Amino acid sequence: MKPSAVLCLLALVAALAGCGSGSDSTSSTTAGAGGNRFFRDYPGQEETALHIGADDCRALAAAVEGQAGRAVRRSSDPTPPNSRCRLEGRGVHITISLDSAHAARQRYENRMVEQVQFNAADPAKDPHHVAGVGDPAAGEHFASWIPAYSTLFAVRGNRWLTVAYPIAGETRPQRLAGAVATARFAFKLSAR
User: Fold this and answer.
1) pLDDT tens by residue, the chain, 192 residues
2) Predicted TM-score of the model (pTM)
3) What is the largest CA-CA distance in the chain?
């Protein structure tokens, strides 16, 4: 093999060695002062034990019953860092999920970028900014509604909340209003 081909091959191997998921145990420590090499470390990106507990799910169910005027059954997975509350009833299929793992805010940002990249041709699948829900410290820029999915994504601190709010018979604006109220309440409950 020619020396130039060997050098090209070595460069390719070195480049590929730098790729990966970051799941190895040294990814945070080998990056030095920069922190994790795949998610930039910023203050407030640390994993927390904040979650949506069983009592929180009960309170969310009562709030949704009041909003929708329909009875719901609830099921809860209160385990941090990925907790959730499911509310089911006649025409109601609501899921409230909280991600409080390391770099949740970064995952939210990545999700919104991907949403735009893959759905730019359909405005109903583009993220629409929602005021009054996201992180006040970030100018409330961390809340997005996807009308086609009746889903609100929002971040406060290092808590990424997803509220899927499909209720049969309600208009998209009604669903958005319900999702916003539910998200605000879930953020309040999960801050403890």
Assistant:
1) 444 443 343 343 333 333 333 333 333 333 333 344 444 555 557 888 899 999 999 999 999 999 999 999 999 999 999 999 999 999 999 999 999 999 998 999 999 999 999 987 899 999 999 999 988 776 667 899 999 999 999 999 889 999 999 999 999 999 999 999 999 999 999 987
2) 0.76
3) 76
* 114, 127 Cβ separation under 8 angstroms: no
Q: Is 94 helix (H, G, I), strand (E, B) or coil?
A: strand
* b/e code 76-112 from CB counts within 10 Å (16+ = b): beeebbebbbbbebeebebbbbbbbbbbbbbebeeeb
Nearest alpha-carbon partner for 162 in 76, 95, 106, 80: 95
